[in-house]
Amino acid sequence: MSAGLWFASGYYFKKLRMVKAWSLATLLQGLGWIVMGALRGQIPDWVSISFGNTFIFLSIVSYHAIIVNLFGKKANWKVGIFIAAVLFGTLVLYQFSTFPPQYRISILSFFPSVYFFLTAKTIYVENKRQRLTGNFIFYFFLFSGLFLFGRVLVYTFTEVSVTQIAFGKGPIQDITYLFFYIISVLMTFGFLLMCIDIFIKGQIQDEEKYKSLAENSTDIIWVWNFDLEKFTYVSPSITQVTGYSIQEASDQHLSNAYTQDSYLQLKELLIPRMNDFRVSSMKIPYAYELEQVRKDGSTIWIEANTVFQKNQNSEIELLGVSRDIDGRKKSEEEMKRFFKELQLLNHTKDKFFSIISHDLKGPIGGMNTFIGMLLEDMETKTPKRMRNDLNILYQSSGEVYALLENLLTWARSQTNEISFLPENVSVKTSVDTVISYFTFMTENKAIRIQNLVGNDVFVFADENMLETILRNLVSNAIKYSHVGGEVKITAEPKDGNVSIQVEDFGTGISDEIRSTFFQIDAKQKSMPGTLGERGTTLGLILCKEFIEKNHGKIFVESEVGKGSKFYFTLPKGK
Fold first, then answer.
1. CA dihedral over 273, 276, 281, 285, signed as positive or negative
2. What is the mean pLDDT of the chain?
């Protein structure tokens, strides 16, 4: 029986834990019965009785430890081995003592009965805790313990003849040997039933656990059967991700679950994988990024982790776990967009410095040449002529200063060094402040600037940025106005915003030049002012950036020969 159980543990009972250990314990018990029975008379009695009974007791200790381990607890082998050693020593000493032989049977029965009771208790408690249904082996251990304990009482407190002890032909011994033989067989049978019960219970719990995991997972778990050409399982999360019910998704063909491009891509990759699986049966996982079709007709990006497997009918299946990566895909697209913007910014930087080198180098070079001429002719020039030349130099240096100021302001804005502190700002006050900057320019060209903004007009914006915007627009208006001209600044509330307008009646702007406004990466074109003032579009680029920073927009209207009107919107203040 032990040998048969040993071989069965490698085949039929391969998945049942401890079966092989139980077969070894049974083999140990069989060895004990051979030593104590078959070899009785062939070897000294103290050897056969001591070793044989110790082997049998160790098998019972092993049964107890195996069952304790089977329930996931740690067995105390040291105690069992120590008690077996005590039993062996007691039996050896008893053989050479003068005590009646019947008490030796009491000792031999007492030790195993204790372990039978302990094992029965363990089985009963764990059956209750784990809700197992099989109590077959529990009753056998319990009855074995009761039988042996009864044997202890019989041999201890009743008169039993020496011929009925050990292998004598007494009814008690006959019943004992028959009992142990039947119990050994039925106990092994009961152990197998308990193992099967625990295994099936574990399988059910695993199935329930995996089922619960699948049903509560946000990922879609699915199985596609290639032989049946259908989904044999789709988890409930399909509804949340695609809007299809489980039945609707199961009735879909694989080709309809994804967009045509994604399905063709998947099909092209699956065919060689399936051929490899047919040959090797190796479960190699693969991941694909596919565009899945939703019930409302929209699509969503998913990452499908798949592996080939064979079911119980040897049919090839594709097990897949699909995860929603639509957000990640959008982030990747956003990163690509940012990368393009970064490339554009880099290109913009190159063009920007090209503009600066051209527009800054020219005026400074001209100023340097002009100063040299002044120094050469200073003694021969009249004060009036000298004053006129100095005015020209002052105007040129002002242009360079304005260009540098815009450059530095733009550079600080690109490195986020300019603080953004929006507040309620009086537009009229800001316009007055800006007009005071251009006293020399307006007097030089006899231009009249009208501040027509009402005292009750406020915007919610950064005051320094607003003044920078107005300063650039007013500077351009003066630059392209004719001598004796006029510049009007107005503001009016409109749809929760305030529209601020800077209008001149000068040369106007051609469509070709106006098309490059606000684009630093475009080829910049500008024309000189009415008195030859140099102009760049850097100021307008800075205006657009600051206006958008303050949640506004800028517009321009112009007609050649009639003037220009720049207007921008900002959020209305209180």
1. negative
2. 80
